[in-house]
Amino acid sequence: MLAAMFRNCRGARFLALAALFLTLGNGAGAVESAVYLPGTEDVPLMPGLAPAPDGMLVFDQPQGRIVEVTTSGPVRRRDVLSFYHESLPELGWAAHGKHDFERAGERLSLEIAGRDGHLTVAFSLIPG
User: Fold this and answer.
1) Mind listing the pLDDT tens digit for each residue in 21-45?
2) Interval 80-114: pLDDT, tens
3) What is the pLDDT of residues 49-65, one digit of tens each?
4) Which of 3, 32, 82, 93 could form a disulfide with 103 if both were Cys (CB 3.0 to 4.6 A apart)?
5) What beta strand segments (E) does 1-128 contain?
């Protein structure tokens, strides 16, 4: 009887682990992994934008961090604004105008240049 209980327990553990792996496997495909702006862990990088190789400055000081990153890509201005106005509040950022956001003593500004399909987006994160 003890051997039968052990086999059933082992089988139940196997089924539970298999169900867990299947659940995690299905979720991993459905959830996109977030990519963040270089130098940050809380400012998402919009799909389609790529950091310029020499367009980054990261400086951490006692008063707060300073991050400046220039990105570019084949995106549209309204899509950039829409992406950041939708995603940043989910990360605790509050919009202050069209291109500015604030959170916990920091200010994030976006500067968008170029024409739709060939935009440059410069991010500036400073203590605020």
Assistant:
1) 333 344 333 235 679 999 999 999 9
2) 999 999 999 999 999 999 999 999 999 999 999 99
3) 999 988 999 998 888 89
4) 93
5) 50-61, 64-73, 94-95, 100-103, 106-115, 118-127
Q: For the chain, which residues make up each domain, given as ranges? A: 1-31, 50-127
CB < 8 Å & 24+ apart, contacts of 61-67: 63/127, 64/105, 64/106, 64/126, 64/127, 65/39, 65/106, 65/125, 65/127, 66/125, 66/126, 66/127, 67/37, 67/39, 67/40, 67/43, 67/123, 67/124, 67/125
